[in-house]
Amino acid sequence: MISIFGVPGPLLFGQLSLGLINGAFYALLSLGLAVIFGMLNIINFAHGALFMLGAFASWMLLVPNTWLAMISPGLSVPDWLSLGYWPALVVAPVLVGAFGLLLERTVIRRLYKLDHLYGLLLTFGMALIIEGLARNAFGSSGMPYRTPDALQGPVNLGFMFMPKYRLWVLLAAGGMCLLTWFLIERTQLGARLRAATENPDLVQAFGVNVPRMISLTYAGGVALAAFAGVLAAPIYSVNPNMGSNFIITVFAVVVIGGMGSILGSIVTGFGLGIVEGLTKVFYPQASATVIFVVMVIVLLARPAGLFGKAA
Amino acid sequence: MGVTTVLPRTAAARPFSIFGFSSAQAVAFLLLLAAIVLAPLGIYPVFLMKVLCFALFACAFNLLIGFVGLLSFGHAAYFGMGSYVSAWTAKTLGVTPEIAILLGGLTGGLLGAAFGALAIRRQGLYFAMITLALAQMNYFFCLQAPFTGGEDGIQQVPRGDLFGLISLRSDMAMYAVTAVVFLFFFLLIHRVVHSPFGQVLKAIRENEPRATSLGYRTDDYKLIAFVLSTFIAGIAGGTKALVFGIATLTDVNYAQSGEVVLMNLLGGMGTIFGPVIGAGIIQWTENALAGYGSWVTVTQGLIFVACVLAFRRGVVGEIAALIKRPL
C-alpha cells in the first residue's frame, strides 16, 4: 500500500476526492455569486437557499407522488411524470432559474437605485422565507436521494477506487464551470454582458436591452446554484439547511478569490476544496475552520483577494 | 446607508437640549424610562430582561450601522462569546455577576478588536461578508472548544450576589440590574454619538474619502467604533447569560446575527430609540409565534423583505419623519 507523509494512500485520496467535490460546489456557487454581483451589484444571500431548492426540485421531480400525498392524501400524478435524475439535471435548474427570474422581476429590481447593502438584507430575508417554508413542509431531517443506477458503484482509477458518482460530479461541475467561462469570456453574449457590467448606460445606448440582460443574468446565476443542488442531492441528504451551511463558507471563498475574474472563482473554489480535504487528513479538528483561516491570511497579505482588483 | 437620519438639524430646530437630547428625544427617553419602571407590574420580568438584553445588543449594532455605516453581519460572535465567558466565569470560577458581565464585555471587545482589524481592510459588501465569515469561524470554534459544552452549552449558571452582597436570585433584583446596565450603556452610546468623536464617525458614514482628506485616519475611527460596539454586545450577551443561566450555540449562530440586523431595520437604523423598539417587537413576535416552529423564521424573512422594500426608515424613523424631529 502506498503511503504519503505517513498517511495511507487510500485515506489521502479519499479525502482529496471529497475535498474536490466540496470544491466543485464552492466553485459553482461562487461563480454564480460573482456573475450576479457583476451585473446586479448585490450579494445574493439567497444563493444557498436556491441551491437547496435545486436539490428539493430534483427530489420532488423524482417522487412526485410521495410529497403530493403529504400535501393531501389521494393526490397523485401518473407515473410517467416522475422524472429521474437525468431529466432533473436540466428541468430543476430551469424551474428554479424561472423562480429566480420571477424574484428579480418582482422584488430585487426595486433595489438597484439603493445602497448595495439593502440587496444583501433583502436576499437574506428571502433566504429565511425559503428555508423556513421548506422546513415547515419537509421537516429538518432531510430526505435521501438514491444515486442513479448508471452511477452506482466504484470505478478503478489505478491509484484508487472512486465512487462513480463522485467522479461524475467532478466532471459535470468542472464542465459547467468551463461552459460558463466560455459563455462569458468567448461569446458575443458574454462580451455584451461584460460590457454591461462595466458601463450599463453606454451599452443600453447601443441598443442592448440591459434590464432584460440583468434579469437573465440573475436567472442564470440561480440556475447554476440549482444545478449544483441537483448534483449535491445524492451526496448529502436533501434537507432545508443544506444551503445555509454552504453559503457562508462560499462567502469566505469569494473574499479569498475576489470577484474580479470568472476563472479566479473556479480556481479558488476547487483549490479551497483541496485544502479542506487535506486538512481533514492531517489535522481534522481544523477542517471546519480552515477556509476561514485562509481568508484571514489572504486579508492580511492581499486584502483585495487572490484574483481581485484593488477596490 | 443612505436613508438614515437625514433630517435637517438647524440651530432653530433644537432650541432645547439636555445631555444631547433634543426636546422630542427627551420626551421619548422619559417614556422609555417610565416603561422600564412600570412594565414589570404587568409583564413577566424574565421576558422584559430578554428584551432589554437584545435592545442593548441592537443599540450596540446600531452604533456601527447607523452612525458609521458599517454593516457587521457577524455580531452574534461578540454577543455569544460574551455570553459564554460570562456564564463560564460565573459558574466555574464563581466570580460575582458584575465581574462576569464585565468579562463578557471585555471578551466581546477583544474579539472585536481582532476581527474588526481584519474586516476594515475591505469596505461595503466585502466588510459584511468578512464579518459574517469570521463569526462563522467563531461558531465552529465554539462548537468544538471544550469550555463551551458543545451542543449542550453551559447550563445552570448561578446569578450570584451582586458585589458579593445582594442576591440576584429573585427576578426583580435581576431586572433592576439588567435595567441599570441597559440604561448606562444606552446613554453611553448616545453620549458617544453626540461627541466630537461621533461627529467624525458620521462624517465617515456620509463621505469617507472626504473625511480622509480632512486628515482623519478613518480606519482608526472605524476600529474604535467597532471595538466599542462589540464590547457592548459582549456586555449584552453576558447579562443575558446570567438572566437565563444558560449560554448556548444559538447565541453565536449566524441566525442571531441576522436577527440583530432585523431589529435595527425594523426599529429604524441610525435613530437612537429604533433598536429598542425593534428589539421589543421582534422578541414579542418570537414569543407569540413560539409554538409554530419555522413560521418564526418565515415571519422574520417577510419582515426583512417588507422593511427593505417599503419601510426602510423603520418604525421610529417613520415617527421621526412624521413629527419632523430626529428620535
Features:
heterodimer; A: 311 residues; mainly alpha; ABC transporter involved in vitamin B12 uptake, BtuC; two-stranded antiparallel sheet; 12 helices; B: 327 residues; globular
Protein model, in words:
- The complex is a heterodimer of chains A (311) and B (327).
- Chain A is mainly α and 311 residues long.
- Chain A has one domain (3-301): Orthogonal Bundle (ABC transporter involved in vitamin B12 uptake, BtuC), CATH 1.10.3470.
- Helices cover 68% and strands 3% of the residues of chain A.
- In chain A, the strands form two sheets. Chain A has a two-stranded antiparallel sheet with strand order 1-2. A two-stranded antiparallel ribbon of chain A has the order 3-4.
- In chain A, strand 1 (3-4) and strand 2 form a beta hairpin.
- In chain A, helix 1 (9-40) packs antiparallel against helix 11 (262-282).
- Chain A is globular, with a radius of gyration of 20 Å.
- The mean pLDDT of chain A is 88.
- In chain B, helix 7 packs across helix 9 (218-244).
- With 327 residues, chain B is an all-alpha fold.
- In chain B, strand 1 and strand 2 (166-167) form a beta hairpin.
- In chain B, strands 1-2 form a two-stranded antiparallel sheet.
- Chain B starts with 22 loop residues before the first helix and ends with a helix.
- Chain B has one domain (23-323).
- Classes of the chains: A mainly alpha (311), B mainly alpha (327).
- At the A-B interface, helix 5, helix 10 and helix 12 of A face helix 5, helix 10 and helix 12 of B.
